Amino acid sequence: MAGYYPLMLDLRGKTCIVVGGGPVAERKIRSLLDADAEDVRVISPTVTKGIAELARSGSIQLRLGEYLEQDIDGARLVFAATGDPDLNRCVAAAAVVRGALTNVADDSAYGDFVTPSVIRRGDLVMAVTTGGASPALASGIGRDFMARYGPDYAGKVERLRELREHVRLRLADPDERRDLLRLAAEEALAGSLDELTGSSDADRMDEWIRRLRAAADRRQT
Ligand SMILES: C[C@@]1(CC(=O)O)c2cc3[nH]c(cc4nc(cc5[nH]c(cc(n2)[C@H]1CCC(=O)O)[C@@](C)(CC(=O)O)[C@@H]5CCC(=O)O)C(CC(=O)O)=C4CCC(=O)O)c(CCC(=O)O)c3CC(=O)O
Ligand SMILES: NC(=O)C1=CN([C@@H]2O[C@H](COP(=O)(O)OP(=O)(O)OC[C@H]3O[C@@H](n4cnc5c(N)ncnc54)[C@H](O)[C@@H]3O)[C@@H](O)[C@H]2O)C=CC1
């Protein structure tokens, strides 16, 4: 069993190809679109209603037909998600030759990566895998995360990003920057980010930094 190295890929501008058009392929396609993939191509003789709708709206390019090896030319990611195990292996082998990373839906041993359960809260992205041991458990833990980290985390992360940009411009001392940003993250986890007042964004940031500095000083004494 592979150890799996987790990473977060920027898929903008990269060609992603899904071979197959059933419910599993649809899930992979939706997860690509959720990740802002801009060039998603699907090859399958039959597709779900959902995939057909995504093609109609222009979110994906669909070729209705059986897979041909040249379909995956230029791909960076390839998903082999047909109901035919031999064909899925063929797709994976052709992808390897082309240097593309592959996912094989019915046998993870043949692919380069597995798809985790993904929870998104704006820029906060959580991914859970069991490496194929129990997709149902990965999904269940994903649901637990959803309950623990609610939709408010999208706003929290946005504010922490703003604060971080502000702090990097305003504070020269790297130790002080680190202490304040760690404290701000603790506030986000404790749910106390909403106490900010101030008339403009810059005022709010200055006030927040003042408060964090005071808290950091209190900690040191
Ligand atoms: C190895 C992997 C390869 C890959 O697809 O990358 C794979 C493989 C297989 N899945 C199977 C079954 C199920 N898959 C799900 C659900 C999900 N499967 C996903 C990923 C993965 N599935 C990769 C490993 C992930 C990991 O373990 O961490 C998720 C997380 C993400 C996604 O699909 O995008 C998504 C949840 C999304 C969410 O809810 O967040 C459910 C649950 C359900 O349907 O409710 C079931 C039934 C219950 C069960 O089996 O647990 C079968 C057997 C088919 C058969 O029996 O014929 C195989 C084939 C095999 O095991 O060889
Ligand atoms: N990774 C995962 O999360 C899961 C994986 N699976 C496995 O994934 C596979 C797909 O599952 P489903 O979507 O439910 O299957 P499905 O049978 O509903 O769909 C298979 C799709 O493959 C297409 N297809 C068949 N021959 C093709 C060809 N020559 N070229 C291109 N496309 C072709 C069909 O038109 C159809 O759209 C199955 O092997 C299943 O065992 C099943 C459940 C979960």
UniProtKB/TrEMBL annotation:
Pathway assigned to this chain's UniProt record: Porphyrin-containing compound metabolism; siroheme biosynthesis; sirohydrochlorin from precorrin-2: step 1/1
EC numbers for this chain: 1.3.1.76
Primary enzyme class: oxidoreductase
Keywords: NAD, Oxidoreductase, Porphyrin biosynthesis
Reaction catalysis annotation: precorrin-2 + NAD(+) = sirohydrochlorin + NADH + 2 H(+)
Pfam (any one): NAD_binding_7
Protein name as it appears in the record: precorrin-2 dehydrogenase
Record lineage: Bacteria, Bacillati, Bacillota, Bacilli, Bacillales
